[in-house]
């Protein structure tokens, strides 16, 4: 070992993991392990992995969602208050006490809480309307004036449980066409990754199978795969796709034929309670096109669940009323079967206990159905038509369904909106204020704070807020556009989410799908490939880029070999250097997608590049189609069809380099033609990759980068690490490594 007091230059080696940092100190001249205080300078620091603030964010989002819901319901109460108080002054007070225990000392009212009229009590109400859906259905169809309190209760329920906003910009219908439309979108998304799994499928037939309530999930998958007529290998992938769509367990690694997804992509179930968490994990590992396929599968799953809920009815209330009566009939039928002499008391008790638990907690549905199926499959019921029909109902998930269950989350707000409008129109003839306030009541259902506005708090009052106001005052769905500067808030949102360049820390990064950044990524990978262990010459590299990458969504080894044989008369056995085993990891995705909308000639014209890049930028930042449409109005040369298609275009992700680094800094390049060249131009005219260009002293990029920050560099503080665009686990590991290096520097100073 090297003498610990010997003054020598030294190296520090680090092995940085998410929960540990290994370290060793060696002499620079011979790599011998150094000592301090007679102890070898090597070791490992263990620590708990840094966690994302997902749990905290989840609680915060839930609190905000419930607060907004409470606020909407209070606004509804304000609209009804004057009319209801005329007939029942204590109605709202009693309503608030309805959730208190009868033993609560703060409870003022006893007995009936909703209705305390002499001729109408809660008992009368529930006999007339066993569920809230019975009331909603009645209010849409009755030709008589309903009790104003009943109208309030129905609208209160609609606004409280208003449904999802997946199809926010669409008119939603009950005709099942949504599944077909989404399947066509899914077909197109597979084409984007040069995958033609669904190309030869009759979409109408596929939609009919998926929305057939008489088929169970497994049968739907089998019939859909059979309909495609796929070969054996494709059948495996199609099975996983349709498993995903119908809500069975799916393996994403098999679907995309990529073993790297095995850990996070195993047993993905759209029906799972934690599906949002699972989708977030998948978003981290799948590329943009792959994740968009999973997202579209989720949309189709929701549409299928909605179709199952509706059961051919015109509105959700009619479907729920039918479900209620079906549940009662099923229960009566089972009770009749249980009264048979050969059914034991234990069997009756087990079923009754299982049923009671299911009614209290719908998460126990699987256990209940298993118990019911086991009972009905007993030999004693083999020839009983009623028992066999109940078993068939269990098989297609149509047995004793309850009113409130997780599947209700698949109902879009437009379905509830149709009922709300029908109630307002029908009862508005008896209560004029309903028609006068119809627009405001509808806003309580349909309004959602745009994500790019964020929390409705002033920035100085919350670290999570960035909203910019037009004026001071209370913000409601009715005055939102007058109170909030939407465009300024969206710009503030952009600034918050845009990272800084890896090398020019004051410059914003480009969108990952920027034409400039995509070209950089492709060239950075293409420049270092080898054909049968021989590097590409520059001219051949440029032809590959122009003839393959500019014409194909993805470029595989097989496609490149075929092109080389046909156009360059080169026979190549192996291709080395790509980031993936059998294909290039990089592509010109946005270039191809914009070509299909704007035309190849338009996208390729230099004078249109700024416009195309701006559209890509907006598409990356804004998910909201309304704001995209408003932004696109800046380009009158776009047709209405192009505006619609561009508004629907959703690009994701940010690069790690800035436009200034790639195209605006120019250096003399003696190795090329001694003319000033940008970094991107050097990647095009040489076979160097990014690191080679930056480190090439003849180019001088590193000197320019260093000059940008002369006198501005900050120390490596915890605050600097926190600002890095990486995961919490990586940030913690980096900070631990920095602390170890600082400690070792101190140790060496005291022992040298």
Automatic annotation (TrEMBL):
InterPro entries: Cas9, Cas9_REC, RNaseH_sf
Domain CRISPR-associated endonuclease Cas9 REC lobe: 201-706
GO function terms (MF aspect): endonuclease activity; nucleic acid binding
NCBIfam families the record matches: cas_Csn1
Protein name: CRISPR-associated protein
Upper lineage: Bacteria, Bacillati, Bacillota, Bacilli, Bacillales
């Amino acid at each position: 070992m090297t003498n610990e007091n010997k003054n020598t230059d030294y190296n520090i080696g680090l092995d940085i993991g998410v929960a540990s940092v290994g370290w060793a100190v060696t002499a620079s001249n011979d790599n011998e392990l150094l000592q301090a205080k007679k102890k070898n300078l090597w070791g490992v620091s263990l620590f708990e992995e840094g966690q994302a603030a997902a749990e905290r964010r989840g609680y915060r989002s839930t609190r905000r969602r419930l607060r907004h819901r409470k606020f909407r319901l209070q606004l509804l109460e304000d609209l009804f208050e004057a009319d209801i108080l005329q007939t029942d002054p204590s109605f709202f007070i009693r309503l608030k006490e309805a959730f208190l225990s009868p033993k609560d000392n703060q409870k003022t009212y006893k007995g009936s809480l909703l209705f305390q009229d002499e001729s109408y009590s809660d008992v009368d109400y529930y006999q007339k309307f066993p569920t809230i859906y019975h009331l909603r259905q009645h209010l849409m169809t009755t030709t008589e004036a309903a009790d104003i309190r009943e109208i309030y209760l129905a609208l209160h329920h609609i606004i409280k449980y208003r449904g999802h906003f997946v199809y926010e910009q669409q008119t939603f219908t009950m005709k099942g066409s949504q599944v077909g439309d989404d399947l066509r979108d899914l077909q197109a998304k597979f084409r984007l990754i040069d995958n033609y799994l669904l190309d030869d499928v009759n979409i109408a037939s596929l939609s009919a199978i998926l929305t057939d309530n008489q088929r169970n999930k497994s049968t739907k998958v089998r019939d859909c795969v059979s309909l495609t007529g796929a070969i054996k290998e494709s059948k495996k992938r199609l099975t996983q796709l349709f498993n995903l769509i119908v809500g069975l367990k799916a393996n994403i690694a098999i679907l995309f034929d990529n073993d790297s997804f095995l850990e996070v992509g195993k047993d993905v179930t759209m029906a799972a309670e934690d599906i949002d968490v699972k989708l977030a994990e998948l978003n981290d590992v799948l590329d943009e096109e792959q994740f968009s396929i999973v997202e579209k599968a989720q949309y189709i799953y929701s549409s299928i669940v909605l179709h199952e809920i509706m059961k051919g009815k015109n509105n959700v209330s009619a479907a729920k009323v039918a479900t209620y009566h079906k549940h009662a009939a099923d229960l009566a039928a089972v009770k009749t079967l249980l009264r048979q002499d050969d059914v034991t008391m234990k069997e009756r008790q087990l079923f009754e206990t299982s049923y009671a638990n299911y009614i209290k907690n719908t998460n126990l549905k699987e256990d209940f159905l298993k118990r019911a199926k086991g009972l009905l499959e007993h030999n004693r019921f083999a020839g009983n038509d009623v028992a066999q029909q109940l078993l068939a109902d269990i098989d297609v998930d149509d047995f004793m369904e309850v009113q409130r269950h997780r599947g209700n989350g698949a109902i879009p707000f437009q379905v509830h909106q149709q009922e709300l409008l029908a109630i307002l129109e029908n009862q508005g003839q008896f209560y004029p204020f309903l028609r006068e306030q119809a627009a405001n009541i509808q806003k309580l259902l349909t309004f959602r704070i745009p994500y790019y506005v964020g929390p409705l708090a002033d920035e100085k009052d919350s670290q999570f807020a960035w909203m910019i106001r037009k004026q001071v005052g209370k913000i409601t769905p009715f005055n939102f556009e007058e109170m909030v500067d939407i465009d300024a808030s969206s710009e503030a949102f952009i600034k918050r989410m845009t990272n800084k360049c890896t090398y020019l820390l004051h410059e914003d990064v480009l969108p990952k799908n920027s034409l400039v950044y995509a070209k950089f990524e492709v060239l950075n990978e293409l420049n270092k490939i080898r054909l049968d262990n021989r590097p590409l010459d520059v001219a051949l590299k440029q032809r590959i880029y122009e003839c393959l990458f500019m014409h194909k969504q993805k470029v595989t080894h097989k496609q490149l070999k075929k092109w080389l044989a046909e156009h360059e008369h080169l026979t190549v056995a192996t291709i080395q250097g790509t980031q993936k085993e059998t294909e290039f990891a990089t592509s010109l995705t946005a270039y191809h997608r914009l070509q299909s909308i704007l035309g190849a000639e338009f996208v390729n014209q230099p004078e249109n590049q700024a416009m195309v890049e701006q559209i890509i930028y907006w598409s990356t930042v804004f998910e909201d189609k309304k704001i995209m449409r408003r932004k696109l109005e800046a380009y009158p040369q776009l047709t209405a069809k192009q505006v619609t298609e561009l508004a629907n275009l959703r690009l994701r992700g940010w690069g790690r380099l800035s436009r200034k680094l790639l195209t605006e800094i120019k250096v003399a390049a003696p190795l090329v033609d001694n003319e000033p060249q940008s970094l991107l131009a050097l990647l095009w005219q040489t076979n160097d990759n990014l690191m080679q260009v930056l480190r090439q002293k003849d180019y001088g990029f590193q000197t320019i980068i260093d000059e940008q920050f002369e006198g501005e560099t900050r120390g490596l503080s915890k605050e600097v690490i926190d600002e890095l665009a990486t995961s919490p686990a990586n940030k913690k590991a980096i900070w631990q490594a920095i602390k170890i290096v600082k400690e070792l520097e101190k140790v060496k100073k005291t022992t040298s």
